[in-house]
Amino acid sequence: MSVLEAINLWKFFGATEALVDISIKLNRGLHLLLGPNGSGKTTLLKIWSGLLKPSRGKAYVMDKYIPWRDRHLIMKFMSVVFEDNAIPPWISGKDFLRFYAYQKNIKWSSVVEIAEKLGVTSYWDRSVAGYSSGMKKKKLLLTVLSSENDEIIILDEPYTLLDKESINIVNEILEEKLKNVEAIVITSHVLTGIEKKINSLTILFNGKILFHKNINELYREGEITYVCETNDQLGFLEKLYSEGIRYIEVKNNKIFFKTRRQLEWIKEYKCKSFIDVREIYEKTLLELSRE
Fold it and tell me: CB 3.0 to 4.6 Å from 77: which of 61, 151, 221, 284, for a disulfide?
């Protein structure tokens, strides 16, 4: 079963083509959408969340819901945060969160727990009109991070305006949520480390999909970055050199290297592997600029 799907999807805003014949299927897990401003990322997410109706094509949630028709149903198990979400300026942050928690059947204790982690309780009694942009962003993220009933989470640029400590807290909570939800979809201009947990990577440009691969395809076809710890660094490095691996970096007691090949002997060591999303993104855009 696909969690989110688009089939030959088009979206026009007047004469502007925001989405051009998009076909994509996202299954369970964490999905990252990258692309420059105006590439169509937010438009695609707003169609899946029922805020926009496509001009042509089809979109589905959980294989059966048509989002712009069934929004009242999908919002029972989906939470979304977009950059242009607004909070009424006259209400206090705390009252806003109480209202949202009541609407989504979220335990107030869960809201307080996450609010304390993000440092929101120190100012949430004040009216939203006096909040900075970063304060408002934390408040909006709280509506999603504190929910315990979601099957799908959609986050549009969740990391902008956040400090490093808050980003780490958000990522820790999202990683924990991945154990229970069907899917988390994130668009971002900022790579924060959460990309190491992805199940698929999609790159959009001018309303079109330039790149889309799931994690198995990325590992099978792409270059893998390894981080290994060993007390025998010299012996480990000799093995790497014997394999013809030259892109190696040693930091403290950790060895970083990249390869496109599967190394069976690596299982004998304490190693972690991940896909270098930044490198894929930069290469994809560079290849586009050469066309």
Answer: 151
